[in-house]
Design a protein that fits this description.
CATH class of the largest domain: Mainly Alpha
CATH topology of the largest domain: Helicase, Ruva Protein, domain 3
CATH architecture of the largest domain: Orthogonal Bundle
Order of helices and strands: HHHHHH
Largest sheet: none
Helix content: 55-70%
Number of strands: 0
Structural class: mainly alpha
Strand content: under 5%
Number of helices: 6
Distance between the termini: 57 Å
């Protein structure tokens, strides 16, 4: 049982990692390739709010009413020297937490991370107790009790005598 609790705790810790790692360092004014990588990172970690359930980077609509202006805004903010954290903060101030692919691990959202594991553990305990109860009921119906030492000893003696008799008959 202790082993299962440790496994459940490790799974919970791995599952509760932050959804989006936000870098607070300013964007370096280096090559356009670095800026393009940052643009791709930001748009891959931001949801499109047109209803397609995709990120800004992978929105399948060619003329999306949300993704196209949002991508342009991200590019212009990067060109203005805004950091990744400032861009996310700006979008979060306008759109709320719905811009993130996963809920943040804070406040009421923690329940969404913990509740599935609590439910699985609770169902497992309930099933264990139910199966144990059913097993005890079926054992009582069959007349099996916890103390079988006398029956076993008597049966062993009769079996031993019969075995000795059959071996004696076989040797003859």
């Amino acid at each position: 049982m202790k082993k299962y609790l440790i496994i459940a705790a490790l799974l919970l810790a791995a599952h509760s990692a932050p959804a989006v790692a936000v870098d607070a360092t300013p964007a370096p004014a280096t090559s356009p390739l670095a800026s393009e990588d940052l643009y791709e990172k930001i748009t891959s970690n931001m949801m499109c709010l047109c209803g397609c359930k995709a990120t800004l980077h992978s929105c399948p609509h060619l003329d999306c009413g949300y993704a196209i202006p949002a991508r342009k805004l991200v590019k212009s903010m990067l060109a203005d020297g805004k950091t990744e954290a400032e861009i996310f903060a700006s979008f979060e101030a306008k759109e709320g937490e719905s811009i993130y692919p996963k809920p943040k691990m804070e406040g009421f959202n923690i329940l969404g991370y913990i509740l599935p594991f609590m439910l699985i553990f609770g169902v497992a305990v309930l099933l264990y107790k139910l199966l144990l109860k059913w097993n005890l009921k079926s054992a009582k119906k069959r007349g099996v009790t916890g103390d079988n030492s006398e029956k076993t000893a008597t049966r062993d003696d009769s079996d031993r005598k019969r075995l000795d008799q059959e071996l004696a008959d076989y040797e003859d």
